[in-house]
Structure formats: C-alpha cells, structure tokens
Amino acid sequence: MDAVIALYTSQLTPRFKWAAKVFFKNAMRLDLVIYTSEEAFEVAEGIKVNYSPEMRQDAFNISPHGLLWEHEISDQEFYTSAWEGMPVLCQRQIGDLPFDPLAATFYLVSRYEEYLPFIPDEHGRFPAKQSFAFSNGFLERPLVGEWALVVGKRLLGPDFELVQNYDYLTTVDIDNLFAYKGKGALRTIGALGKDLRRASFGKLKERISTLFNLRRDPYDTFRKQRNWNKTHGIKAIYFMLFAPFGPKDRNISPHSTEAAVKLREIADWSTVGIHPSYASNSDAEKVQSERFQLQEVLRRPVTHSRQHYLRMRTPHTFRNLVDLGVKEEHSMGYTYTPGFRSSMASSYTFYDLEMEAELPLLIRPFAFMDITYAHLNPEEATDEMKQWIPRVKEVGGTLISVWHNRTFSEHEAQWKGWPETYKSFIHAAQP
User: Fold this and answer.
1) Would you say 149 and 398 are in contact if contact means Cβ atoms under 8 Å apart?
2) pLDDT over threshold 60, residue 192
3) Which residues, including other chains, have CB under 8 Å from residue 298's CB and lie 6 or more apart?
4) Domain ranges of the chain
C-alpha cells in the first residue's frame, strides 16, 4: 500500500507512538508519519489524521480518550457499545469516529489488564475467562484488524481491503521428541519394567523394536509434516523443550545423541526455536541454559521462543527474552480457549507498560492449539478450525496455529485420524 498516514498529535508520548504504529502500520498496513508541529502538518502530504482535542477542517478527526497520555497503570472502567457491527471501547462524543481506536488498541494489544491483579489458574497463568475480550464476547474476533479495515475504508474509500496480506504459519511444540528413544538408561529401564508389570506386551514389543531401530519412533512424525507442508507451500516453526527432566518437563535428555541428530535434521528445512521449560517460569538463567544447549546442538542461533504451558509473567518473561537475544515470541494465546488474546491477528512489537517503552521483541499471536479441540472428533475439529481462516483473511492477518508432533503419530487414541485433520486444514488455510 503506497498511501501514507500523516498523523498529528498535540502530545507525543511513548504510548501514543506505539499505539499509532500498531494500528496504522501493523493492522492497517499503511505507512505512517507523525507530526507534532501544526505548521508542518498543514503542508504535509498524505491522508491527514488529527489526534487532538481541537477538531480540524482539513483532516480526519479522532478525539483522544486520554489513556495514551497517562503515565501510570490503573484500573480502567471500560464498557463496549456497537458501531458498524463491531464492539468498540474508549467512546467519544466528538470527532469522525465514535471511539478512540488508538487508545482502544493500546489497551487490548498491550495486555494492560495483565499488569493488574488477577486470580491465576493452576499453572499461574492469566485465565481467558478473566479477559475483557472474553467478558464482552469478542475474544474470537481479531477486533483491532476489523477496526483498521473499517477505518481504512473511511480514509481511502470503499475499495480498501487487507485480504491480500493474509498468510498462514504452522507451529509445532515438541514437548516430547520421542515416545521411547533418547530417555536415558534409568528412565528406559523403568519404562520397560512398568510395561512388564502391567502386562503391556504390545507396548513392550513396540518399545524394544524402536530402541533397536527396527521401527521409527511413534512421535517421530517430522518427515511426514515436512512433506505435507511442502505440498501446500506452508512454512513451519518448531519449538523444542530442552530442559532437565521434571514433573511437567518430560522430554528426552538434552544430552541425547538421537535428539541431536533429529533436531539438526529438522533445522535443515525449518526454523527451530526454544520452548522454555515449566520449571524455568521466567527464570532468565534457566532459560539461557536451555537455549544455550539447544544452540550448541543446532550449531546456529535460536531467536524464536514459546513458553511451555504458555506460562509467562508480564512483562518479566518478555524482558528476559529480549536480554537473551530472542527476536520473536509466540505465546500470545490461550490453551483451551480459542481466540485472539491481544485482539490482533498480525505481529507487533512488545510494549512494556512498567518501563513505558517499546521493546525489540516481535509478538506473533496464535488463534488456537490442537489441544483446544481435542475433545472433538477429527471431522468436527476440522470444521471448527476452518472457521478461523476467513476471519483472519478479511483483516489481512497471519493465521497461526499450534500443533504437537505427537498429535500426528496417532499413538494415543485421542489423536486417531488427526493427520487427516491437519492435511485438510492446511489445504484450506494456505495463502
């Protein structure tokens, strides 16, 4: 899009600069120039947008709500009303819009409410049902993108659209690289003994055959995924849990030779990121240790991350990742509740409300996990997943979904038929 937004503000704050960037550049996909001089704004080229209490005849006027000019974090009493078939907040009585889209975008995308006290779930996470988006019935809508599309039509005319920017990205969490291999002698002996005690002779035979390389490990589904993705031109990112064994971190040993060989193979045709462990819980030293070991195995930098169990503390988790050199973060979503945690289907940089600063970390929000629909049969799950495609496509976002390598193995009964679910979905979701 060649159009340029010439945006005037009477108060330039870090909040304003970031919100304007998210709304006009990330969501609306337009170039942006910000002016604080009225004289310079009067002769500016582009589509003029005035963000100030004083309305102008020569510009599109947005009346400021005031949130972007604040410097503290406090409880905000917002409510929603309907406009153009969409819920809006930060309502205004004057201007060319009945709400302030920049303030509303800032509140939703910065995850303002996650800086305030909340009742965490059993894993210490912010629950989806406590979110403003869930409470007001729009969690399943990429609402900021919807606002951007309608405002874009007001500014550029009815032919303005965003669908041409649509993309799809598949991501896979490797919580357990192998079902049987690479577990170390003690864990393997213990598992063999358990199979014997339970008289699980079929599983015992399968385990022994795998350990002696007479058959492929059930969770080693990566070549199949590569072939499916290649058929549809789909890019993939894998997130590897690479931590010491623990109650919630039950992956293979970081020192496993089999793991090293397999991970290098995956890295030859895809991006591999770190899956910081449950035990690390934003502990910078533990995350750094896990990332360093993974980099040693891959023999290349690791710059992508997604938290195991999506455990994160805002903003500390994100600060730590920036300090460690991570460039992209992929935890912005919920495990069992589908939707857009930040009301965005496009990437954006992280804003630290406590520091009042934009950090050099790209947030890549996802819409759903395979686990989200594990209670459905494969056909029902496929239908539910496909509903996300037109929603994201309309706003020109990137639809990101989360899978697990074990899902494609059909090793557990709950995942029977899911390879077909995946293939059907990516066929429909491809750009």
Assistant:
1) no
2) no
3) 263, 264, 267, 272
4) 4-159, 165-179+218-429, 183-216
Whole-model pTM: value is: 0.94
Judged against a pLDDT cut of 90, whether residue 254 lies above it is answered with no
Task: Determine whether 410 is exposed, middle or buried from the number of CB atoms within 10 Å of its CB (0-12, 13-18, 19+).
Answer: middle
Which string of DSSP letters, residue by residue, matches 136-148? TT-TTS-HHHHHH
- Nearest residue to 348 (alpha-carbon basis) of 163, 144, 174: 144
Whether omega before 315 lies within 30 degrees of 0, making that bond cis, reads yes
Q: How far apart are the first and last CA of the chain?
A: 19
Residues 6+ apart with CB under 8 A from 340: 133, 139, 140, 141, 142, 143, 333, 365, 367
DSSP string, 76-111: -----EEETTEEE-SB-SSSSSSB-HHHHHHHHHTT
Residue 188 predicted with pLDDT over 70: no
Q: Are 84 and 158 in contact (CB under 8 A)?
A: no
Question: Which amino acid appears at position 248 of this protein?
Answer: K
Q: Which sign, positive or negative, has the C-alpha torsion 195, 197, 199, 201? A: positive
Q: Please tell me the distance from the alpha carbon of residue 91 to that of residue 77, in angstroms, as a whole number.
A: 12
CB atoms closer than 10 angstroms to residue 185: 8
Residue 335's pLDDT band (boundaries 50, 70, 90)? very high
Q: Return the CA Rg of the chain.
A: 24
% the chain with pLDDT above 70: 93
Tell me: the pLDDT tens digits for 70-104?
A: 999 999 999 999 999 999 999 999 999 999 999 99
Greater confidence (329 vs 209) lies with 329
For residues 177 and 227, what is the distance between their CA atoms, to the nearest angstrom? 18
User: Which residues pair with residue 398 across a beta bridge?
Assistant: 167
Distance CA 171, CA 50 (A): 40
pLDDT at 246: 84
Single out the residue of 56, 43, 131 nearest to residue 95, CA to CA. 56
CATH topology of domain 165-179+218-429: TIM Barrel (3.20.20)
Provide the 8-state DSSP code for 230.
H
Measured over the CA atoms of residue 367, residue 300, residue 242 and residue 192, the dihedral's sign is positive
Q: What pLDDT sits at residue 159?
A: 96
Residues 355-376 pLDDT 10s: 999 999 999 999 999 999 999 9
Residue 383: predicted pLDDT: 98
Rounded distance, CA 250 to CA 303, Å?
23
